[in-house]
Specification:
The chain is mainly alpha-helical. 66% of the residues lie in helices and 11% in strands. It has a single domain, classed as Orthogonal Bundle (Arc Repressor Mutant, subunit A). It has a two-stranded antiparallel sheet.
Length: 136
């Protein structure tokens, strides 16, 4: 089973990358924006943990997103060395285009799974992630 999950993960990364590329994003950039959309104000270190990349790589991702005007950073009021990151309005517009492409991919991927079974599949996958301590 783990082999199939790994194959699915690689296929999803490839397909997502191809579908978001016209919007000028890489998969790590899209992942970062997705995390920030649901958890605005995270630090670089927090984002890195949630995106499964190193803090150094996350710094590069954030710089690229900031140069594109998709995120902005501001010092944390309680700890000036920590920069809190949030998605800009331009970033939200780019995310909306990417979300449409990713939703189409998900529909393609789930085409043979009846609507009633999709919620069970998602619940089961979340349980697997939780059991391995990877959180969501």
């Amino acid at each position: 089973m783990s082999y199939v999950v790994a194959r699915l993960e690689r296929a999803l990364r490839r397909e997502i990358g191809e579908r978001i590329q016209p919007s000028g994003l890489t998969v790590p950039q899209y992942t970062t924006l997705s995390v920030l959309r649901s958890r605005s104000g995270l630090s670089n270190a927090q984002l890195a943990r949630r995106s499964y990349i190193t803090p150094q790589t996350m710094s590069e991702v954030i710089v690229a997103l900031e140069e594109k005007g998709l995120v902005e950073r501001a010092p944390d009021p309680g700890h000036r060395r920590i920069l809190r990151i949030k998605v800009t309005p331009k970033g939200r517009r780019v995310m909306a285009r990417c979300d449409t492409a990713v939703e189409e991919l998900e529909e393609q991927m789930l085409a043979d799974i009846p609507d009633g079974d999709r919620a069970d599949l998602l619940r089961s996958l979340r349980s697997c992630v939780h059991q391995l301590g990877a959180g969501l």
